[in-house]
Amino acid sequence: MTLIIEAYFHEYPARKKVAEIIFKSGFSVKEGKIFAGNVEIPVSSLARAADVNRKIVYHTIEFIEKNYALKSIFERMEPMANLKRVGPIVGWDVLEFDMEMNKLSCALKDVLDILSKPGCHVRQVIGEEPLLSEGKIYIVLTRPVPMEILKEIKDVPTVKDITLHTSERDKNKLACAFCKVKACPRRALLQEK
């Protein structure tokens, strides 16, 4: 999608910034307006986020709607609830994987095969593969990840690094040589009260 935005907006850098924000936020463009699901997003709010004036936002909307290829993409966009930062707060584990460049689909298959074993309850999977850097996979699990599973995942050839985001307070239970562990400080504070 980055290439499509670049191709259509390369002559209009301010409009390109607006289009990128619309895309990254999962907003849709319909009937001259911007929506997050069924909620209309004020043009002035988007203009502030892109650090442009409102006129640029209106021109971007008009440009998208006049171009069939862009219109067909942007009118179908939907926002998605992303649980990767929320997981540790509600007691779930989030596994973050750094992948070799252009190896996301291979790694995802291998990691999901390992996580399909009993005891692993996947709630959400998010994959990101930028054009010029390594990919990332975030997997939200509703139960703690067994350490033997982390070892198996670390052995997947395309996995470069694993980070476990958890609400677990006893770090001795989590210490291992296979991953980095990050605990959510908010969760710890809530449990101390």
The counted number of beta strands is 8
Q: Specify the CATH class of the largest domain.
A: Alpha Beta
| CATH T-level topology of the largest domain | Alpha-Beta Plaits
Query: In DSSP terms, counting alpha (H) and pi (I) runs of 4 or more, how many helices?
Result: 9
Beta-strand content estimate: 15-25%
- Give the low-confidence spans: 171-179, 184-193
Order of helices and strands: HHEEEHHHEHEEHEHEH
- The geometry reads as elongated
Spatial strand arrangement across the major sheet? 5-6-4-7-8
Largest sheet: 5 strands, mixed
Distance between the termini: 46 Å
CATH superfamily of the largest domain: ACT domain
Tell me the radius of gyration.
20 Å
Q: From the 3D coordinates, which CATH architecture of the largest domain would you assign?
A: 2-Layer Sandwich
Secondary structure layout:
Elements: H1 2-9, H2 13-25, E1 28-30, E2 33-36, E3 39-41, H3 43-50, H4 54-66, H5 68-74, E4 93-99, H6 104-115, E5 122-128, E6 136-141, H7 147-154, E7 159-166, H8 171-174, E8 180-183, H9 185-192
Parallel strand pairs: 7-8
Antiparallel strand pairs: 1-2, 2-3, 4-6, 4-7, 5-6
Q: How would you summarize what this structure contains?
A:
This protein is an alpha+beta fold and 193 residues long. Helix content is 42%, strand content 22%.
